[in-house]
Structures are given as C-alpha cells and as structure tokens.
C-alpha cells in the first residue's frame, strides 16, 4: 500500500464528512474508516491495475454504509477508460501477436476482449450490405445499425435482448416490410444451432473467452471514434470499406487511453498500415471503452492493503489444516478480524471453507488451540493429507500442526523395517501412522482420549491398524508399562514430541532394566526428544535439561534445531541412545 500511496490516490484516514464519492471502503466506525482521497498528482501513474487507480463504480459512490463486519464488495469495483482497436475476429490473434508490446497486458485480463453482439453468424455475413464505391454512406450506416440490432437479438430502443420468439417475429416483420433481406435465412437464425457447443469450446481453447463471463472483469464500448485518424493513416479507401462481420477488441496499453491514432507510436501505425495494405477487408476501428474490474479480480493482499489503515502490517500468510485457514492475527488486526477473514475466505475458495483465529497461546494439557471461527462454515473437523496419508482431525479437541511435516519426514527417513517405534505423545498419529508403513510395529500413546479416538480412526482409514497398538495413558506411565513387559526387547526407537515438557519425562527411563540381568538380550533404544529453548545457546541449554532429567553427568547427544517457533525461541530435537547406566540405575523415580 505504501508503495502505491505516493503515486496517485493517496490513502488517508479522514473524517466522515468527506464527499461520499471518494469514500472507501467501509464507514461504520470513524476509527476504522479508511478513505482514498483523490490526489491529482503530476507524478506518472504506476503501471498496471491498482485499487488506487481507476474510478469507483457509480453504485459504489451511491451506497456508502458499510458495517465493520460486512465486506462491501462494490467498494472494490474500479473502472478504467481505455482505447481499443476493433478488428475482425479472424485476425485478432495475428494482430495481438504483432501489437503485444502496445496492448494492455494486465494480469488476468485478456488483451482480446469480447463485447455483446460482436459475433455475426457466418451464414448471415453475405446478407450484410457490401461496401460499394460511391454508395450513400449515411443510408448504408443506418441500415447496418438496424441490421446489427436484429442479428444480435436486440430491441430497438433500450438494447435489451429479445426472447427467441419475439426476436424471430420481429425479424420476420421487419424484414418482410422492408424487404431487403431474403426470408429463407430466418429459420437458421432462430433454430438452436447444433454447432454452438463446438464453437464455444473452440473459442475457449483459443483463449477468446467472453470478457465478463469469469466475474473478474467486463469490457464495454463507450464510443466509436470518428474514423478521421484512421482514414488519414490508412487512406481514403478505408472510410468506404467499413467492417461487416464478427469483431474483437484489442485493448491498448493504458497510456493510449485518450490518444488519437496520430499520437500512436510509429510501431503501431506501421502494423496497421501493413495490415491495411495486405487486407482485402479494410476493417479497423478505434473505439473508447470501459474496463471494469470487480472485487473478484483483486488478489488477497491488494484487497487487504486497501481495507486496513495505512501502515498496518497486512496479514498475508496463514497456516492451512485441511479446509481450515488458521490466522494468527495481531492485536491491531482484531477490530478488522471478520473483514480480514472474509477476504481470506473469498480469495482462497474452494480450498478454504473456514477461517479461524487463534484466541490464546497453546497452554492446556492436550495442546489444543482455542479457536474462534471468523468466516465460513463452523466445522473444525477436517481431513489433512500429509505424505500420502489421510488424517481426520478435529481442531477443537486435538492437536495438529502441519508445520512439523518436514521434521516428521526426517525422522521417518531414519526408520527401517526392523524398527519397533514407541511414540509417547502421538496425537492423532501424524508420525505413528506413516511409521507403521515402514517399520515392524508402532506403539502409540496419548493422554487425550479424543486424540486416541482419532488415532484409531486414522489407522483404520489408512489400513494400518494391524501394525499400530494404541494406548491412552500418561506418558511416564506408558514408558514404564512398555519397559515392564516383554515388548521392551523389541523397542528400537522412542519418540517424545511434547516440546514444552518432554525432557522432564526422561526420568521414566531410569532403572527400567534394574531388575533384569545385565547380560542378555536387552535393547537400548534411540530416544528422540523434543524441546524448546529461549537461551542464547539453545543446544547447551536443552542438553543440560536432558542431563538433569536422566541424572547423568554426560550423555552423548545428537542435537538439531527444528525451527524457530517465536522470535528467539527454538524448537530442538535431541537424539541419543539410552545410556546403560540410566537403564540399570537403582534410583528410579516412581510415578
Ligand atoms: C505437541 S502434541 C504432538 C502430537 C503429535 N506427536 C504431533 O506431532 O502432532 C503433544 C501431544 O501430547 C499429548 N500429551 C500431553 N500431555 C501428555 C501426557 N502427560 N502424557 C501423554 N500424552 C500427553 C497431547 O494430548 C498432545 O496430543
């Protein structure tokens, strides 16, 4: 926004008394009101479409009230006045190629524009009066206008389309009374055209989609230029040889919006001249037109920039969990939270169906988030696909973070077919379930009964339930229970992903083998424990916590930084083989 603001229309926060014409976009509370005051700068316009350029639409200037919770989409309509060349449909692509550098070239707007009535059925073309040298051009023009109206099914006065029946009747009456076209073509005009579908498909594949059909933009012809300029350029012959068939508009670069043909760059003139020389039908017209860009046209950040007060950071990223967009709004955004959410929803549909904001930092035992639904449907049950595995999660009751996907992948890549994995804080199974595809067996545990329910459901969903044994107990008790049974012999890796406190659970490994003979088939698993650190030396800090929990003087640890979760706060993963001295220690801590 600030980039644009000093160029043309400058956003300011001003009093409500401003002329309504310039208000933008919502006005319920003065404190929330952002206005764009036209600032007629002499500085050159920035290139390309912008919400700070163009004019608001008529309807926008008339309806001013906008509730803070309701986004007024009309406020984002912008009208741009442009010049265009009307050219024969058959030649528009060739001309587009040759004039490309001088065409509009705006994102998501086709240089070749369609307007209603620009197509003439090929069977009707011969009916149109052909230009003859010396003909009464005025009369010919009148006949052409009348005929065009009828061909395109338009009523005379207001230009509304007639129903097919009325159209046919009207056509029959008019043609009979005037008698200048043969009636035998009438049936063809009114009968549904068998080739219509095919033609539509062809048109779409050629990229000549009718402007306005996509809901992003629409082009209308405002006025046909008097052809003086073109006649000077292309010669007298041009004036007598007006176009008589299907046409398209080539939208010219915005710099040429109010220029006449004489002021066009030589490069354009040369192309037009050459075209006129080689063409059997001299068929160019310069027209003034109106390009309207609607709310749907603008990208999410463009709308948010325009919506929020100047200088406010625009929330441009969000985490996605299935169909849910998860915002992390700052306090300054909160007065605009519903407007922001609506824009996020609109601009990311259909992928996103629900927009939520985190109300509080994760503090509860089950690590679930306090979420407020701001837009879309209110279901927080969604399906996430990660590494080809489907997970059902209910964000209201279980923990999920897609941000740990890469870290999970790293751990998984270290697992082999001979492994037995013990996932102490498994959640709904984002590690346990893909691990089950690789390893011999997974023992997965979580304290949250909802997480365990989804873990079981996800195991079945991915047909891996036979390889996963699910437990619902406290992590320390789980470790002890596993190592009290024979299954302990097979456990090769232990994963402890509860970064806020997992290190403090390591004491559960003390003395797990104290009652077993030191010689024999005991397995000392590789433990992967996660933790946070805000210390200046996070590795040292986390290592210390591990050492203290294990009551060991030295532990050989492989330490990695996983990601920065907040400024100055690292998430780390420490991997180490359970020391024998810990497993056989006599000072076990009782749960
Ligand atoms: C940070 S989440 C990680 C879940 C999962 N590993 C993942 O990556 O999505 C931590 C999980 O530990 C569970 N949890 C919290 N305290 C626990 C405890 N004392 N014993 C067992 N699980 C616990 C929570 O319910 C939560 O599902």
Structure in words:
The chain is an alpha+beta fold. The protein folds into 4 domains: 2-71, no CATH class; 80-293, no CATH class; 315-379, GMP Synthetase, Chain A, domain 3; 398-583, Vaccinia Virus protein VP39 (Rossmann fold), CATH 3.40.50.150. The protein is 28% helix and 20% strand. The protein is built from 18 helices and 21 strands. The protein has helices at residues 2-5, 58-62, 92-99, 137-151, 164-178, 186-190, 196-206, 228-234, 236-240, 266-278, 300-307, 337-347, 405-413, 432-438, 449-461, 475-484, 538-550, 580-583; strands at residues 9-12, 35-38, 55-56, 78-88, 112-113, 217-224, 247-251, 285-293, 319-321, 324-327, 354-358, 371-376, 381-386, 389-394, 420-423, 441-445, 468-471, 493-496, 526-533, 558-566, 569-577. The strands form 5 sheets. Strands 17-16-15-18-19-21-20 form a 7-stranded mixed beta sheet. Strands 3, 4, 5, 6, 7 and 8 form a 6-stranded antiparallel beta sheet that branches. A hairpin with a 2-residue loop joins strand 20 and strand 21 (569-577). Helix 11 runs antiparallel to helix 12. It is elongated, with a radius of gyration of 35 Å. Mean pLDDT is 79; it is low at 1-44, 61-66, 131-137, 176-184, 186-192 and 205-212. Bound molecules: S-adenosylmethionine. S-adenosylmethionine binds at residues 365-367, 399-400, 404, 425-427, 430-431, 446-448, 451, 474-475, 497-498. Residues 191-200 have a biased composition (Basic residues). One of its GO terms (molecular function) is tRNA (guanine(37)-N1)-methyltransferase activity. Residues 47-68, 191-210 are annotated as: Disordered. Residues 57-66 have a biased composition (Low complexity).
